[in-house]
Amino acid sequence: MIITDTGVPEEHIAFDKWGGETMLRLDDGWCSALDRETYMCTIYENRPWICREFEMGSWECRDERAELDSL
């Protein structure tokens, strides 16, 4: 969820069924702001708070990647 105003561009924002702002996910589940070739965020300076707190390479990151790889 996008809970603070960091300047996420509107084309990367979706709304959940309660009207909350979330990062837009593409049909395959990937974040719309992720560059598929470099795996880098295209809106890094304006990324939401949760992305700022979710440290790359942390155990949470590795767990999420492992879960996606198992699909």
Describe what you observe in this structure.
With 71 residues, the chain is α+β, with helices and mostly antiparallel strands. The chain has one domain (10-69). The chain has 2 helices and 2 strands. A two-stranded antiparallel ribbon has the order 1-2. The longest helix is centred in the last third of the chain and has 11 residues, at 59-69. The radius of gyration is 12 Å and the shape is globular. The model has no long low-confidence stretch (mean pLDDT 88).
Total number of strands: 2
Classification by helices and strands: alpha+beta
The residue fraction in helices comes out at 10-25%
Ends distance:
23 Å
Large-scale geometry:
globular
How large a portion of the residues is in β-strands, by DSSP E? Answer: 5-15%
Uncertain segments: none
Mean pLDDT: 88
Largest sheet descriptor: 2 strands, antiparallel
SSE topology string: EEHH
Please work out how many helical segments DSSP would assign: 2
Evaluate the radius of gyration: 12 Å
Number of domains: 1
Question: Can you list the strand order of the major beta sheet?
Answer: 1-2
Question: What is the topology?
Answer:
Blueprint: E1 13-15, E2 21-23, H1 49-53, H2 59-69
Antiparallel strand pairs: 1-2
For this entry, give a set of tags:
71 residues; 23% helix; globular
Q: What can be said about this structure in brief?
A:
With 71 residues, the chain is of the alpha+beta class. The chain is built from two helices and two strands. It has one domain (10-69).
